[in-house]
Design a protein that fits this description.
Blueprint (H helix, E strand, L loop, with lengths): L1 H9 L8 H19 L3 H22 L3 H9 L8 E10 L2 E7 L5 E2 L2 E3 L6 H13 L1 E13 L12 E13 L7 E8 L13 H12 L6 E2 L1
Parallel strand pairs: 1-6, 5-8
Antiparallel strand pairs: 1-2, 1-4, 2-3, 2-7, 5-6
């Protein structure tokens, strides 16, 4: 196990992300894992100190206040694993359903982190109706991508992204507590995208899957 971790730390960062981010993300995960299982109070102090150092390194590299980074790290408990970001893609006449996020005023596929007890496909369907008002049914898992590898901005959170193609079956456009806009857009006239959530590369590949249903699922 030690050699595997060493190999991971020495590997070049995927997707061109900064080396400091890859290393501090792993350092924070090691501290979180240690705090999840530690029994010796002296070791607990050491793991907390490792987490503090990881927060300061992230702050130095990103310009985010260390207190804000510390709050993010302290909110995570248990064994550290990648999060699962589930997105639903609905195409009608080659136009894709997008929603505008209240947080940044930009547009994305409906979706978000999966909830406990969600089936992956049901998570996509639920996010679509909650964020857009439309009812859709998942018909294909088009892609399982590592967030770091497809042109998204660097993030402290490591996530796998699941993209489902979904068929529109009903509903009407409705905003939500998270979204304040709903619309269908052609890929050659997209509104400003919320790049931490979705990219033009994602949408272009999903349209290919829409046109060619027999394509195998993409994965990293």
């Amino acid at each position: 196990m030690a050699s595997a971790g060493k190999d991971q730390a020495e590997a070049p960062p995927p997707g061109g992300e900064p080396t400091w981010l890859m290393l501090t993300r792993e350092l924070a995960a090691l501290a979180q894992n240690g705090l999840a299982y530690v029994q010796n109070p002296f070791d607990q102090d050491r793991y907390q100190r490792v987490r503090d150092i990881a927060a300061r390194l992230v702050a130095c590299g990103s310009g985010v206040p260390p207190e804000a980074v510390q709050r993010v790290l302290e909110a995570e408990h248990g064994y550290a694993t990648p999060k699962i970001d589930v997105r639903g893609a609905v195409f009608v006449d080659d136009k894709v359903l997008l929603v505008r996020e209240r947080r940044d005023g930009k547009w994305t596929l409906p979706g978000g982190f999966a909830d406990v007890n969600d089936l992956p496909s049901q998570a996509a369907e639920r996010e679509i109706v909650e964020e857009s008002g439309y009812i859709a049914r998942a018909r294909k898992l088009a892609a399982v991508w590592d967030r770091r590898l497809h042109g998204q901005p660097p993030s402290l959170t490591h996530a796998y992204k699941l993209f489902f193609l979904c068929d529109l079956v009903g509903g009407s456009p409705t905003t939500s507590v998270e979204t304040d806009g709903v619309g269908f857009y052609p890929l050659d006239a997209l509104p400003p995208l919320s790049l931490p959530r979705v990219t033009g590369e994602h949408l272009a590949r999903l349209l290919e899957h829409h046109h060619h249903p027999d394509l195998p699922t993409d994965f990293d």
